């Protein structure tokens, strides 16, 4: 019950938990990690519209991410996109922590140069 020993214990515990969390967010819990990612993209109406679907699955951590997006070239210089992102994972995984904060819809307005194509 030495106060200095208790402080040292608390400091060591904080460093240990911090190291564990850092390993988790940088995916260093395992020697190797394996994941699959697929993006499907299709343009329509002379490249005025583009539909994109992206999926991600981490085989090691069992985390998933899904992101549909539709884009419309409103003018020669402006691209309007709408979509959403959904992340999910097992309890205490990175996507389980990030999902409630980052899951949701988005709207993008992007200037586009005349020389680029919609991607």
Describe the structure.
The relative contact order is 0.14. With 119 residues, this protein is an alpha+beta fold. The chain is elongated, with a radius of gyration of 21 Å. The chain has helices spanning 3-25, 94-102, and strands at 35-44, 49-58, 63-75, 78-88, 104-111. The mean pLDDT is 90. The longest helix is centred in the N-terminal third of the chain and has 23 residues, at 3-25. It has two helices and five strands; from the N terminus they run αββββαβ. A hairpin with a 4-residue loop joins strand 1 and strand 2 (49-58). 27% of the residues lie in helices and 44% in strands.
Sheet-strand content, in percent, reads 35-45%
Tally the beta strands: 5
Shape: elongated
Class based on secondary structure composition and strand pairing: alpha+beta
Alpha-carbon distance between the termini? 63 Å
What's the number of helices? 2
**Unreliable runs:** none
In brief:
This protein is an alpha+beta fold. The protein contains 2 helices and 5 strands.
Which features would summarize this protein structure in a list?
44% strand, 5-stranded antiparallel beta sheet, 5 strands, alpha+beta, 119 residues
């Amino acid at each position: 019950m030495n106060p200095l020993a208790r402080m040292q214990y608390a400091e060591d515990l904080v460093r240990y938990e911090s190291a564990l969390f850092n390993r988790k967010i940088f995916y260093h819990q395992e020697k190797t990690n394996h994941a699959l990612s697929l993006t499907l993209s299709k343009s329509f109406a002379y490249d005025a519209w583009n539909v994109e679907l992206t999926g991600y699955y981490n085989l090691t951590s069992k985390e998933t991410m899904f992101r549909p997006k539709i884009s419309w070239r409103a003018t020669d210089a402006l691209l309007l996109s709408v979509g959403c992102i959904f992340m999910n994972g097992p309890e205490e995984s990175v996507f389980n922590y990030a999902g409630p904060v980052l899951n949701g819809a988005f709207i993008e307005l992007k200037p586009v140069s005349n020389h680029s194509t919609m991607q």
